[in-house]
Automatic annotation (TrEMBL):
One of its GO terms (molecular function) is oxidoreductase activity. Pfam families: adh_short. This is Short-chain dehydrogenase/reductase SDR. Transmembrane segments: none annotated. PANTHER family: PHOSPHATIDYLINOSITOL-GLYCAN BIOSYNTHESIS CLASS F PROTEIN, PHOSPHATIDYLINOSITOL-GLYCAN BIOSYNTHESIS CLASS F PROTEIN-RELATED. The keyword Secreted does not apply. Gene3D superfamilies: NAD(P)-binding Rossmann-like Domain. It comes from Deinococcus maricopensis (strain DSM 21211 / LMG 22137 / NRRL B-23946 / LB-34). Keywords: Oxidoreductase.
Length: 286
């Protein structure tokens, strides 16, 4: 259990993708510091089991909200349930995401990688802004990746309808995370809410399982450069809790330090364009 310093007693956090991997570690560390932590998961039994495990490990208050964040109605319902339960939100960690070897579509008919890895961040954050802006010093942490440096946005075909490549779709979603972070920071100027993105590293546990397109031979080459879940979660917890980053917003971190981003990720016009595109995807269905 992580030493509970700095104290988060009296604070509330919501962590997506928290039933395994770095999300589970992030939730554990925030609970260990005294925060009341809501974890979001799709499977009721697994999510409840993880919450019990985290409570036993930390002695903290860990609660659950069920939802499939690839489905926009579920994203909205998760936010409604949270807003009904809590008037404040001190820490939002957008961490749910995945890599898909073959192209899939959500129940909304949107390519899965773009929907889960980017649009869920965008929509959930929008839906929770009322409680975030009502909370002094609220922080948003977005899980991105250095994979963002390997691509540019496919404006003509963001859903890869003209030919799907899993790694390209994943990298595009991670670039979208950085652009979203920067544009949201711009739009939140004048408020007390900050938002930053981070690269967790090549997280060892579960990576090959979650990324079935990765051959065993390639994983053998990459494994020496991988990190543990605890190491992968460290920067997220730092961004969520450290006084060192108070007031910093719109930045990208790795290993608890500000890191450079690609030229594409610094394109303010692209960030605003992605925001407008994202809005068209999440318009409520009447």
């Amino acid at each position: 259990m992580t030493t509970p310093d700095p104290s988060l007693h009296g604070q509330v956090a919501l962590v997506t993708g928290a039933t395994n991997g770095i999300g589970k570690v992030i939730a554990r560390d925030l609970a260990a510091r005294g925060a009341r932590v809501y974890i979001v998961g799709r499977d009721a039994d697994k999510t409840a089991r993880v919450a019990r495990d985290l409570q036993q490990a930390t002695g903290g208050d860990v609660r659950t909200i069920l939802g499939d964040l690839s489905v926009q109605a579920d994203v909205r319902r998760v936010a409604r349930e949270y807003r009904a339960a809590e008037p404040r939100l001190h820490i939002l960690v957008n961490n749910a995401g995945a890599f898909y070897r073959a192209r899939q579509e959500t129940r909304d008919g949107i390519e899965m990688t773009f929907a889960l890895n980017h649009l869920a961040y965008f929509l959930l954050t929008q839906e929770l802004l009322p409680v975030l802006t009502a909370t002094p010093g609220a922080r948003i942490v977005n899980t991105s990746s250095m994979a963002h440096t390997m691509t540019r946005l496919r404006w003509h075909d963001p859903e890869f309808k003209l030919g799907y490549r899993g790694w390209s779709a994943y990298a595009q979603s991670k670039l979208a995370n950085v652009l979203f972070t920067r544009e949201l920071a711009r739009r939140l100027r004048g408020t007390d809410v900050t938002v930053n993105a981070f690269h967790p590293g090549l997280v060892r546990s579960g990576f090959a399982h979650n990324n079935q397109g990765l051959t065993s031979a390639l994983w053998g080459l990459l494994r020496p450069f991988s990190v543990t879940e605890e190491q992968g979660a460290r920067t997220a917890v730092y961004l969520a809790t450290s006084a060192d980053v108070a007031g910093l917003s719109g930045l990208y971190f790795t290993n608890e330090h500000v890191a450079p981003v690609s030229a594409e990720a610094l394109d303010d016009a692209a960030a605003e364009r992605l925001w407008r595109l994202s809005e068209t995807y999440v318009q409520p269905v009447h």
